[in-house]
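Note to self: user wants both folds in one dump. Writing first protein now.
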Amino acid sequence: MTSVTLNIPVVETERLILRGHRVEDLDAMVEFFAGDRNTYVGGKMERGDCWRAMLRGMGHWAMRGYGLWHIDEKSSGSFVGWTGMIFAPGWDEPELGWSLLEGAEGKGYAFEAATAARSHAAQHQGMNGVISYIAHANNRSMALAERLGAKFEREGALHGKRCQVWRHPRLEVQA
């Protein structure tokens, strides 16, 4: 039997670890996708759908060389959400995305993790001045995009639904 090893870099911030997916994350994902917080990231999913979503996330890393990291809080080791770069067929360009699990909001984790993911993408993955697709009703993500320095660029569509496209500032990268 052949196994595949993915080279998903680990990125650390002051309070967080951005890392690859783990089977142990499944229960927290099932809880997230069973509740109401999933509105802007695909809607409700059953356990099997969450498993397939994790596999798709790993496949994105394998096929594109970048993807979404799962986020752990350093102090507790708890899985608190995900962030990173995704680029699906039919999209205009790669997107910086983020989501936090219940109880992780209001602590600055999304800002800290998205800042680290965006910096890593600019420095190591050749993606600078990236976009974020944000649903019109997702005021929290718009506020975070503004805090990250992104600006509303234009109206767009994602998966056939109207959305806003926010452009992040280009970062200075070291040669």
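First done. Writing the second protein, which came from a different request thread.
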Amino acid sequence: MTDKNSDISWFSKDSYPYGLSYGEWTVKWWQWILSIPTPHNPILDQSGENAAINQPTEHVWFLGGRVGSEDKNFPFRNCSIPAGRSILFPVINCEANPIEFPELKTKEDLINHVVNDENTIAEKTCLLNDISIDVQRVKSDPEIFEVKLNDDNIYNVNGGETIACADGYWVFLKPLPQGEYELSFKGSCENGRLRSGANYRLKIQDKE
């Protein structure tokens, strides 16, 4: 194992990276991904060209998989990340809001929907340079949070401000040493029918 690989580590689900709970960071991830229009949305991108859009200004870099589907082929993306950033991404996750699911009338309906969906997960794996990374289930914190969907969003529904709930399996890497890394993660739900994931070539570079 190289020295670079020996420095790979990640946050536990009960930690408070940069003063926020793990679950609070997942809420920020959802607010990030749902605010970006589909032509530039990183989880619809095949090459990684949109990976840097609307990233947090410091501490953390967000990555995404793809929208769940029956397709077994995952995108391969190239992504350059400034040194010193932790990296947060979902291996597989679920979010529900009343715009996308008008039948979910109450906060309890939203919570039950995402819990039931995550309970069908059949697979959740993550490898970084062939090192197995711990995948952890983390609920949104708070369970119900505010979100704004872009008018041109990944769900192809009306945009607007609403409330949401989310649950899922995440990886939150601590800052990696400079260099190149191969990242691969995938998950499946509905007992394997729907699949999400992505492959990345990460380049950790000098801070700008």
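Dump finished. Worth passing along: Helices lie at 3-6, 22-35, 107-118.
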